[in-house]
């Protein structure tokens, strides 16, 4: 009985090690993807400054922030996820409001998110 229990614990430890190794690879891929995400957000930040493209830029920023928020919890990035969620929620409120849009706070939130993303890339 004791030998069986020890063997089960060993199997659990092996499964945990495999799981952790898999999660580490996912985190690495996520960090590697941040450079492309940063570049995309920077392009959208430029479009945000043009009144003709600001609304479509907001919608795209929201979509990308939503995706980012979704994955951040799984890869151990709660601060980045919270910033992405805040950005997403603010854009929802902004787009439901009056025109012309005041995108100043979107700009501020996106820059805070970009700073967080860049810190993760630099720290990798």
Structure notes:
The chain is mainly α and 124 residues long. The protein has helices at residues 2-48, 54-72, 78-95, 104-123. Helix 2 (54-72) packs antiparallel against helix 3 (78-95). The protein starts with a helix and ends with a helix. The model has no long low-confidence stretch (mean pLDDT 92).
Summary?
The chain has helices spanning 2-48, 54-72, 78-95, 104-123.
General shape: elongated
CATH architectural label: Up-down Bundle
Number of helical segments with 4 or more residues: 4
Helicity, as a percent range: over 70%
The percentage of residues in β strands lies in: under 5%
Task: Return the CATH class.
Answer: Mainly Alpha
Compressed to H and E, one letter per element, the order equals HHHH
Strand and helix map with partners:
Layout: H1 2-48, H2 54-72, H3 78-95, H4 104-123
Features:
124 residues; mainly alpha; Four Helix Bundle (Hemerythrin (Met), subunit A)
